[in-house]
Design brief:
177 residues, alpha/beta, five-stranded parallel β-sheet, 5 strands
């Protein structure tokens, strides 16, 4: 199985990073983890060139999208900041436009595991998180197979607060083997 994982948190070694690595360690096959805060990425310019060719942006997101098109599993992680994914994660998601517009590109059938962390201990952001199944992932033909939400995970590497999320990740990892 080929897996591409995204850590959309600007905090390396933080909760998203811990959870993504926890899942990646359980999986067999080729794995690539990208830290969006460390890559070269540009915004979609809505130039429409992707309808007939590749995205005009010369950056790392094109490489990530190409790898995603070959992957069996995509792990998407982001902390929830002010009720939404981080700006880094949103920039990647906006660049999925190149897939939705180009008939020669497809993410159809790629399985997705969503991992979100949030300082808020409640289910306040669940509607937003649930909507991610259809937009952006379902819109480009991806299949969200599971969602992990670590609520109340405020500090960096707060393993006590991550315990139930890690349990869920262990189950997902076993199911994917």
């Amino acid at each position: 199985m080929k897996t591409v994982a995204i850590v959309g948190s600007p905090r390396k070694g933080g909760n998203c990073d811990i959870l993504v690595n926890e899942l990646a360690e359980k999986l067999e096959g080729e794995k690539k983890i990208y830290y969006l805060n460390e890559i070269d990425m540009n915004y979609c310019e809505a130039c429409q060139k992707c309808q007939t060719g590749d995205c005009v942006q010369d950056d790392d997101i094109n490489k990530i999208v190409d790898e995603m098109m070959e992957a069996d599993l995509f792990i998407f992680s982001s902390p929830i900041y002010y009720g939404q994914m981080t700006a880094q994660a949103k920039t990647l998601v906006d660049r999925f436009y190149q897939v939705s517009q180009n008939p020669n590109k497809s993410l159809e059938g790629t399985k997705v595991v969503q991992i979100f962390t949030q300082a808020n201990p409640t289910e306040a952001f669940d509607a937003y998180i649930d909507s991610m199944k259809t937009m952006p992932f379902g819109y480009v033909g991806m299949d969200v197979i599971d969602t992990v939400v670590a609520r109340g995970a405020m500090g960096k590497g707060e393993n006590d607060q991550l315990a139930s999320a890690i349990e869920q990740i262990e189950k997902i990892g076993n199911d994917l083997l």
